[in-house]
Amino acid sequence: MNGTELPTTRRLLGKLPFVDPGRPPLPARTAFLTGASSGIGKALAAELCARGYDVYLTARRIEVLEELRAQLTAAFPQRSVTVAALDVTEHEAVARTIDDASRQFGGLGMVIANAGADDWGNVGEGRFEAHRAVVDVNLLGAMATIDAAVAHFRSQGGGQVVGFTSVVAAAGLPGGAPYCASKAGLTRYLQSLRGELWNSGITVTTVAPGYIDTPINESLGDKRPFLIDTRTGARKIMDRVESGAVHATVPRVPWTVVEYLLARLPTRLLRKVHA
């Protein structure tokens, strides 16, 4: 798709309820990404570079990020790749790091809150601290990232916030209470934010993946229906993000239907769904 086709496509899509009609051209092809050291985040870093973005990549493991920067710089020498250690549960550090990325690039076009954690296990079995850590990363850490991004985009006059939830946000799966709760909470947070910012020049995109082959779910083995690899997942995610979608299941088929059904299954059937 060339540069003249894209605005036309966005104008047409803007007539649909799942695309923000106020989406302007991004101020710069620059992206800030959390959770970039593995899984979807690592694949997204490569996909962003391939699409012409300069990237600011963050995660807790700086040594892994340094290796990733070397790989991306070798593959995409024309792109600027910066890495920084960041724990999204340190909320003030999140805001400082986004400010640093903005200063370096002279503005940001996109902030992607991707950092995530997982811990499956039943409630009441002594795992509360682990369960709280999941919520700290998936919900509060994402909120800190998004809050700082919106403050930046308000002063800048536009941009795009991308938050990662999951199709399981639609239902509480047995054994997955903290994960499902954190993703459901983030889904509603993004929905509320979208209402605040609608037609403001700041696009809010919720990405709800199905099963993408990452370390966070590899222990599930063959209990991952419709599984796709991270490279395919990253490509499909960015296709939806760049289209200005407000809520994107990935892949769209079959997960849009699965998400709809999960939200409506009675508890007696949900008990048969094992993550």
Automatic annotation (TrEMBL):
Stored Pfam families: adh_short
Organism: Streptomyces ureilyticus
Signal sequence bounds: none
InterPro entries reported in the protein's UniProt record: KR_dom, NAD(P)-bd_dom_sf, Sc_DH/Rdtase_CS, SDR_fam
Domain Ketoreductase: 29-215
Record carries keyword Repeat: no
Native organism taxonomy: Bacteria, Bacillati, Actinomycetota, Actinomycetes, Kitasatosporales
Highest taxon of the lineage: Bacteria
Keywords: Oxidoreductase
Name the UniProt record assigns to this protein: SDR family NAD(P)-dependent oxidoreductase
Protein family membership: Belongs to the short-chain dehydrogenases/reductases (SDR) family.
